[in-house]
């Protein structure tokens, strides 16, 4: 009896799911037919398809946007996607680290483009642009030229040349107008804008905070904030086009939600423990324990020092390369290099590991202690935010050098 009841429930649930899918598909089809009927009367329509962020990958956290051009006369509905890249290109990861990644634009049917985001549970909002037929035709001609194999590639820049900024520049070039975006209450720093996309991923946020330098702590004006699709969604409906002849018109004619994003709680979440702050606090506790132990026994725990200097030095090498040998924006100057720098690995580690160099190692740690003491006092006056986990880790490194001074006490025979 119970088995029969459960079987009936399964069949009923399956039928209910099937009916629900049919109803949903019917609703979407009806909506598409309505849109199609409306646009036949309006002629060409150009819009922005803004996709919600996702935690699927680091690069999907910032959302996405593409052009849509609906041409009822030719019976075409095309999306132009400037967010394409190829993992299989030679030296892709090396070029990515150096900021030399080339993206390209691709044209595809809007239905295919939308299907990809629907399948991953990401929402799509359409902002219909308030452009004339002549302006849309001009944009369409440019896009047709841009998708040619010889023209489609461009050097990606997360802040100044990405899938969103490209579309804004095309709108401005097509219309010859400037964007009048409301400023009041829209003050944002670059770092704040980036961090808001990583609130549920503390290690991703921490890594980005280490890599980005002082320029990230300056304010981005409202137009610069449009590098993020979500900021486009916030600002563009309130934006006007100001033409050279003084005429102004709203940029957005209509807003349509194609699909809502699935709730954030349904997104795959990054493990929350240990967070960078908890990890740095644990490091500091261990450093204090080692310092007390070494001072009491009047000796140095070289193994612990070697591990800590290697970690700090390797991190410093990455930041150094990003700052001085990459095309990534806002990575130079980076004041995090005062705490994390390659010298910990290239000089500090050998002087700590090799007994013959311990006397010189004492000098290195004395200089490091003095430098970190000054940075600790001046850190609040730097033009760059030093995040708390790094500050705590810096104290652990300061303790390491202080321990060398306390244990050796300027002895002639440094062990």
From TrEMBL:
What's in the keyword line of the UniProt record?
A: Membrane, Transmembrane, Transmembrane helix
Q: Which residues form the Lnb-like transmembrane domain?
A: 270-407
Q: Which residues cross the membrane?
A: 273-295, 307-325, 337-357, 362-382, 388-406
List the InterPro entries hit by this protein, alphabetically: 5TMH_Lnb (IPR057436), Lnb_N (IPR025178)
Q: Where is the Lnb N-terminal periplasmic domain?
A: 44-177
Q: Which domain of life is it from?
A: Bacteria
Q: Where do the coiled-coil regions begin and end?
A: none
Q: Know the name of this protein?
A: Uncharacterized protein
- The species this protein belongs to is Porphyromonas gingivalis (strain ATCC BAA-308 / W83)
């Amino acid at each position: 009896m119970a088995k029969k009841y459960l079987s009936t429930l399964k069949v009923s649930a399956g039928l209910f799911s099937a009916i629900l899918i049919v109803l949903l598909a019917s609703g979407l089809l009806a909506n598409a037919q309505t849109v199609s009927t409306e646009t036949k009367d309006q002629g060409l329509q150009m819009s922005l398809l803004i996709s919600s962020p996702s935690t699927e990958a680091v690069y999907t956290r910032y959302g996405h946007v593409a052009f849509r051009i609906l041409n009822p006369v030719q019976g075409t509905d095309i999306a132009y996607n400037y967010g394409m890249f190829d993992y299989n290109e030679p030296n892709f990861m090396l070029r990515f680290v150096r900021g030399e990644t080339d993206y390209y634009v691709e044209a595809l049917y809007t239905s295919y483009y939308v299907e990809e985001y629907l399948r991953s549970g990401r929402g799509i909002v359409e902002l219909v642009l308030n452009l004339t037929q002549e302006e849309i035709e001009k944009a369409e001609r440019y896009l047709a030229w841009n998708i040619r194999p010889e023209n489609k590639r461009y050097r990606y820049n997360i802040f100044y040349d990405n899938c969103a900024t490209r579309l804004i520049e095309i709108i401005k070039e097509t219309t010859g107008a400037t964007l009048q975006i409301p400023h009041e209450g829209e003050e944002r720093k670059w770092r704040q804008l980036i961090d808001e996309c990583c609130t549920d991923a503390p290690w991703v946020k921490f890594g980005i905070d280490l890599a980005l330098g002082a320029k990230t702590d300056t304010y981005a004006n409202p137009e610069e904030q449009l590098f993020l699709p979500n900021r486009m969604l916030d600002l563009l409906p309130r934006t006007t086009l100001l033409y050279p002849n003084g005429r102004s018109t709203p940029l957005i004619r209509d807003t349509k939600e194609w699909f809502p994003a699935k709730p954030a709680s349904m997104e795959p979440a990054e493990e929350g423990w240990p967070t960078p702050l908890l990890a740095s606090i644990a490091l500091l506790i261990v450093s204090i324990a080692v310092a007390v132990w070494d001072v009491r026994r009047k000796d140095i725990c070289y193994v612990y020092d070697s591990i800590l200097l290697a970690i700090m030095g390797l991190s410093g090498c990455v930041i150094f390369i990003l700052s001085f040998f990459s095309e990534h924006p806002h990575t130079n100057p980076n004041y995090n290099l005062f705490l994390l720098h390659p010298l910990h690995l290239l000089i500090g580690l050998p002087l700590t590991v090799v007994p013959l160099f311990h006397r010189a190692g004492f000098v290195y740690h004395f200089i490091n202690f003095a430098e970190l003491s000054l940075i600790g006092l001046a850190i609040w006056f730097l033009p760059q935010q030093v995040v708390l986990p790094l500050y705590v880790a810096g104290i652990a490194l300061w303790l390491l050098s202080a321990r060398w001074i306390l244990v050796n006490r300027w002895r002639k025979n440094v062990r």
